[in-house]
Amino acid sequence: MRALERGLALLEALAQASHNNLNDLAQRVKLPASTAFRLLDTLQKHGFATQSEQTGQYQLGVRAFEVGSAFLPRLQLNDVALPVMKALMQEVGETVNLAIRDQADAVYIAQVESGQMLRMFTRLGARTPAYCSGVGKVLLAWLPLPNVRGLLGVGPWPAFSATTITAFDALERELVKIRHLGYGMDNEEREAGVRCVAVPITDATGSVVAALSLSAPSVRLSEERLQRTIPVIVAAGQKISEQLCLGAR
Question: What angle do CA 74, 80, 85 make, to 5 degrees?
Answer without folding.
Answer: 125
